[in-house]
TrEMBL record:
Protein name: DNA2/NAM7 helicase-like C-terminal domain-containing protein
Keyword match Hydrolase: yes
Domain DNA2/NAM7 helicase-like C-terminal: 21-140
SUPFAM superfamilies: P-loop containing nucleoside triphosphate hydrolases
Assigned keywords, A-Z: ATP-binding, Helicase, Hydrolase, Nucleotide-binding
Domain of life: Eukaryota
Alphabetized Gene3D superfamilies for the sequence: P-loop containing nucleotide triphosphate hydrolases (3.40.50.300)
GO function term, MF aspect, one: 5'-3' DNA helicase activity
Taxonomic lineage of the native organism: Eukaryota, Fungi, Dikarya, Basidiomycota, Agaricomycotina
Coiled coil: none
Length: 170
């Protein structure tokens, strides 16, 4: 995997110096209910931070970066807080690809309930649409309560990034 020289994201590397293409960024800020859908402003703050600092594009190397989430409200909030962002629900992104996928899981709750994230088809779409790298943002305790997600996160290297101040809901 090649990434732009101006990229400051702390990609973990293998012993041979190759960046690990699948990472998990923990975010333990609780989800919010918004009408019939859910959103997570802490995860939006992390996405915004990644796009504005760590994953900045350089003039000589353009990467396509797409944000996916299972929740329509999360996509609405992402587009509201980050103008021009490419953001889609997992269901609406089927059949497409992007160089880097940033997946915002939204789910973070004391019940460790992941709702319809248990549907392996959504996990498959998220996992298979990234050409170069996949970044998953979520609450480890909530996601790992599901055996499929536990196995998925075991395939990722973990990168900790301090959560910036979350934006206000729109």
């Amino acid at each position: 995997m090649s990434l732009p020289s101006g990229n400051t994201f702390p990609w973990p590397r293998t012993r041979q110096g190759v960046p690990i293409p699948c990472i998990f960024i923990p975010c333990d800020i609780e989800e919010e209910q918004g009408g019939m859908s859910k959103h997570n402003l802490g995860q939006i703050a992390l996405v915004q931070h990644l796009l504005e600092t760590s994953l900045k594009r350089t003039e000589d190397f353009q990467l396509s970066i797409t944000n996916l989430s299972p929740y329509g409200r999360q996509i609405k909030e992402l587009k509201s807080h980050i103008p021009g962002v490419d953001a889609y629900t997992v269901d609406s992104f089927q059949g497409r690809e992007s160089d880097i996928i940033i997946f915002s899981s939204v789910r973070c709750n004391v019940q460790h309930d992941i709702g319809f994230l248990t549907d392996e088809r959504r996990l498959n779409v998220m996992w298979t649409r990234a050409r170069r790298a996949l970044i998953i943002i979520g609450d480890k305790n909530t996601l790992q309560a599901d055996p499929l997600w536990r196995r998925a996160l075991e395939s990722c290297a973990e990168v900790r990034i301090d959560v910036p101040e979350p934006p206000q809901s729109t």
